[in-house]
Amino acid sequence: MEYEQLKLDNQLCFRLYTAARLTMGAYHPYLDLLGITYPQYLVLLVLWEQDKQPVNDIAHKLFLETNTVTPLLQRMEKAGLVKRTKGKEDTRQRIVSLTKKGIEMREQAKHIPDCLSDEIIQITGEEEEFVRMIPSLDKLIEGLKHTTHNK
Amino acid sequence: MEYEQLKLDNQLCFRLYTAARLTMGAYHPYLDLLGITYPQYLVLLVLWEQDKQPVNDIAHKLFLETNTVTPLLQRMEKAGLVKRTKGKEDTRQRIVSLTKKGIEMREQAKHIPDCLSDEIIQITGEEEEFVRMIPSLDKLIEGLKHTTHNK
DNA sequence: CAAATTTATATCGTTCACGATGCAAAAGTA
DNA sequence: TACTTTTGCATCGTGAACGATATAAATTTG
Lengths: 151, 151
Description:
8 helices; 62% helix; 3 strands; mainly alpha; homodimer
């Protein structure tokens, strides 16, 4: 049993990695209709809650690096979802704001979370159990932020 | 409250996505010492449990597509961790086997899971709570496999 | 057995994710 | 005020992830 810990079956991270990918897969049909990807959907969630934010704020809320978010925003700008303007007080900043198209997409996206819940319930007969993981996941995320590499 | 469901705070998938990325980040310092990435580590876990498997079996165990795993294996072959030989009964198959270097790495990787557990415990004062998520994650993953897009 | 279909893997193009690095503007310091 | 450091964002290179497509070998069918 010397290598027992190295079995895939014993690994939490592998579950998170897999569950995250498959969940994003489940979003795919809905996001395809809107012509956006899951990370782009996340950016929209952030902007729908509060429009006109600098790149840094968006990256921080998504726990991503700015060098991931910048090209993401460039693609979204090319797709006509957002526009990026120079900051006024701090000209280093790029303020990201929603276009008309980006604002209107909220209405079409409104039902996605419920669609997904329904699908999960229909397939697994469960929902409560998964929602109950949220506080644990938040605690884990909060802890992982203070890991050597994630600081 | 019309858009309440579209808040980042209410999204399970966002937690999974973030937790998975940050957990992989926590593995980073350990895997760097071995010169491998997290997905490469997963492939090694699979091969350490059973050497000499076709690409398809590896992909299936990791819930990945073969067009993700093939380039991954090519990089691992270039790094001298595995070799890929033509299958004998079925010549379409590529049998992936560990090299000496790949076999020996198991010894160096042996303590990684415990190192990570210790780190999590030290930071969050918790471990049980996260381990308790595993059955729920497995149930979720099993369900998600039967989603339209993940079939 | 020959033709059609399926299967195993590979290749290509696009989008993330992120380390390393660069650059200009802002902030701090002498 | 001149100089140094920090900050905000961008660019580049590498490694995933995956859809679409290609190709050859196996399997099924007629």
